[in-house]
């Protein structure tokens, strides 16, 4: 197909040495922006709190998920932040800086063995130290706090599946272009 | 923040393994150094800052290749690329001013996007048909068909040169 000299000349092409430094600079800038924006997101944490309560709610192995005190049903619950400024940030996070990560705080309280998995992002229990890796799947045996960190450029709907007592519950998070906000609903 | 430290380590390894190949791939699509560098930068930034499902070596390589190809397609779609009429910029990248590389890029330039990646991975990077199919997420028969059609088109172009 190609001459040997052509293949050799092609494979002789290497990335310029300065490119690696350029990428690292770019990543560092994104990291700084991420940390700044994460701080702003943390201020809206109350709006992004998803609580899965066990005890009284876990009846016959069933799961009930709450967001900001509201039970998540098939009716979508807006995870949008309240102020115009924060909504703008949600929009910006999606369109201008697709790498921004949206921390969703998930409270889990159950007395049953529960398996949680997400299609996008990572789960980490609040007990986990920073050095522990976050995973897309998690087993919990006791109550506690679970963080679902979802990148803003994640493929949506992002799905969170909770399996307990032989039943499966599916929750999806989607980005709504119209309102520039994320919503969560039970499937 | 430990996540960033882990990613920094993974980045170092991935860069050593894939940067040159991805740069050549991007250069074949974009036909100029600046855009090829931008594409590779964006791909590695995505790798560094995004979350991905755990990947083994082959899956990771496939991820890099597919994201690079998609990034090139996106650049064309958004018209966010620099227009270069000549291939001078590309040929300067080669270790020496080489008529062979000019001829090669000239032929690749005329190849439709659909066939470019399979041809590059198979004939220039040396991957088998099966490997090429896996890397691009194609069925084996689809990869074979694209190679056959791409080969015919390239043959015509190379004979014209």
Can you tell me about this structure?
The complex is a heterodimer of chains A (187) and B (161). Chain A has 187 residues and is an alpha+beta fold. Chain A contains 3 helices and 12 strands, in the order H-H-E-E-E-E-H-E-E-E-E-E-E-E-E. Chain A has helices spanning 4-11, 18-43, 84-95; strands at 49-53, 64-67, 70-71, 77-78, 101-108, 114-118, 122-125, 137-140, 144-151, 158-164, 167-176, 181-186. A 6-stranded mixed sheet of chain A has the order 3-2-1-5-9-7, with helices on one face. Chain A has a 6-stranded antiparallel sheet with strand order 4-12-11-10-6-8. In chain A, strand 2 and strand 3 form a beta hairpin. Chain A is elongated. Chain A starts with a helix and ends with a strand. Residues 42-50, 52-60 and 81-103 of chain A have low confidence and may be disordered. Chain B is mostly helical and 161 residues long. Helix content of chain B is 78%, strand content 0%. Chain B has helices at 2-30, 33-49, 57-77, 88-93, 99-109, 113-124, 129-136, 140-160. Chain B is globular, with a radius of gyration of 16 Å. The model of chain B has no long low-confidence stretch (mean pLDDT 82). Chains A and B meet through helix 1 and helix 2 of A and helix 1, helix 2, helix 5 and helix 8 of B.
SSE arrangement:
The complex is a heterodimer of chains A (187) and B (161).
Chain A: H1 4-11, H2 18-43, E1 49-53, E2 64-67, E3 70-71, E4 77-78, H3 84-95, E5 101-108, E6 114-118, E7 122-125, E8 137-140, E9 144-151, E10 158-164, E11 167-176, E12 181-186
Parallel strand pairs in A: 1-5
Antiparallel strand pairs in A: 1-2, 2-3, 4-12, 5-9, 6-8, 6-10, 7-9, 10-11, 11-12
Chain B: H1 2-30, H2 33-49, H3 57-77, H4 88-93, H5 99-109, H6 113-124, H7 129-136, H8 140-160
Summed up:
The complex is a heterodimer of chains A (187) and B (161). Chain A is of the alpha+beta class and 187 residues long.
